[in-house]
Write a structure and sequence with these properties.
Two copies of one chain form a homodimer. The radius of gyration of chain A is 19 Å and the shape is globular. The first copy, chain A, is built from five helices and 14 strands. Chain A is an alpha/beta fold. Chains A and B meet through helix 1, strand 11, strand 12, helix 5 and strand 14 of A and helix 1, strand 11, strand 12, helix 5 and strand 14 of B.
Chain lengths: 219, 219
C-alpha cells in the first residue's frame, strides 16, 4: 500500500470512527471523561510556609476528581520576566517539590519557556517566582506545561488492555473535532478514570469538564 | 471488521504516517504551511471612519501571506460584558461588513459566546463593541471564532484532488501531535496555500507560523 492509499484509508476509518462528530458521544467502554486543568500550583510544605507564614496549613476549598486531591482557598501571583498572573490557585496536599503548571498562552504572558513535561519531571524546567501574602519563593526550576494524560484506575487499565506509561490516541466528540496523538496513560489504584488537558487544549477542541472522549487505541 | 479492530488499525496507520513526530516534517506534496491568527478586526469603511475619523484611510503596516491582505498600524480595544482586550489589530483592506475574530480564551475574558464560523458567515454571531480614538462602534453581530481552514490556490486544489468547501484531516508534526478533523478547504485564484489556526489551536499543538502540517485525506 503506498502513502496515498494509506492516507485515504486513515481518512475513511477516522470518518467511520467519528460518526456524527457534533453529537454527544454515546458512552461505551472506551469513553473517558475530561477534566480541564487551569493553571495551578503545587507547593512543598516548606515553600507553603514561606508564602503563607510559619505553621500555616492549606485550607480545603473543594475535592478534585482524583482521590485525595483538593483545591485550596489559597491563591498566589506567579511572575516571570515578561509579566505576572494573579490569583493562581493552590492544589493540595503538599508535595515533595513545588510545581507550577501553566499553558503556552500563560508562558507568553510570563515571558518564559516552560517545557512540556509529565507531572513531577522537573529537572531543568523553567524558573518561576511565586508571591504570597507572607513571602516570595523564587524556584530555579519547577514551572512546566503538563503533557495531556489519562489517569486510570488499575481496573480500568485491565479492562482496556493498557498499562502505566502506554500512549494512546484519543478522539474528541465536539464541534471542534480532533484526535490527540500519543496521550500518556498513568495507572494507579489511587486514580479515577479521567483525561486531563490544559486550557489551550480544551479551547482548541471545545472541551469542557465532564465531556467524554474516546480512546481509539494505542499510539 | 469490528470496532476494536478498526481502532487498532487506525492507531497503526496513524503511527506509520507519523514516523518521528518530534522531527520537522520533510516537505512533500501534501504538506501545508501554517499561519497562526491572533485576534484581529476587519472593518467596513463606514465603521473605520467612525472609529478613526471622517475621511481616514487604513495605514499599511505589513503584507500578510494571502495576496492583497495586510496588517494595519491601527489597533483598537474590543469590549464585551465581561471585560476588554486592548490593542487588537486591524487587517485590511476594508470589508463589506465588520468582523471581529477572537479565540475561546478571548471569549472568557470578554464574557461573550462567539460562535464557531467561517469568515463572512456573521448572521446571529456575537455582539461586540469596538473602541477607537475617534469613536465607538457597537456591532449587534460580527464577533466569531473562525473555524480552522486551509487557503488553497486553484492549482494546489487540482494537484491535491480537492475542491472548495471540501473537508480534510490534517496532522501536525510537532511535540504536541494531533490530527485536526474536518478542516475546511477554501479554493481561489487569489489564495496562497496556507492553513489558518487560532491561538488556542496553535498553542494546543505547539504550532508556530511557518510550521508544516500534513493533509491526510478528505474527512
Amino acid at each position: 500500500m503506498n502513502e496515498q492509499e494509506l492516507a485515504a484509508l486513515v481518512a475513511k476509518i477516522v470518518q467511520e470512527q467519528m460518526g456524527n462528530t457534533t453529537s454527544v458521544a454515546s458512552p461505551s467502554g472506551d469513553m473517558v471523561p475530561v477534566g480541564v486543568s487551569n493553571r495551578h500550583i503545587h507547593l512543598s510544605q516548606e515553600d507553603f510556609e514561606v508564602l503563607f507564614g510559619k505553621g500555616a496549613t492549606m485550607t480545603h476549598l473543594k475535592d478534585l476528581s482524583q482521590p485525595g486531591q483538593f483545591a485550596c482557598k489559597e491563591v498566589m501571583t506567579i511572575v516571570g520576566p515578561g509579566g505576572a498572573i494573579e490569583r493562581v490557585r493552590l492544589l493540595g496536599p503538599a508535595r515533595k517539590q513545588t510545581q507550577v503548571e501553566v499553558s503556552v498562552a500563560d508562558c507568553f504572558k510570563l515571558g518564559i519557556q516552560a517545557p512540556l513535561r509529565d507531572s513531577g519531571d522537573l529537572a531543568g524546567s523553567a524558573p518561576i517566582t511565586i508571591v504570597g501574602p507572607k513571602g516570595t519563593v523564587t524556584a530555579p526550576e519547577g514551572c512546566i506545561i503538563a503533557v495531556k494524560h489519562i489517569h486510570m484506575h488499575t481496573s480500568d487499565a485491565a479492562r482496556l488492555g493498557l498499562k502505566d506509561k502506554d500512549k494512546v490516541n484519543v478522539q474528541t466528540c465536539t464541534e471542534r473535532g480532533l484526535i490527540f496523538l500519543e496521550v500518556l496513560v498513568r495507572v494507579s489504584d489511587k486514580f479515577k478514570l479521567e483525561m486531563h488537558v490544559d486550557m489551550d487544549e480544551a479551547n482548541a477542541a471545545s472541551l469542557k469538564n465532564g465531556d467524554m472522549v474516546k480512546i481509539l487505541g494505542k499510539s
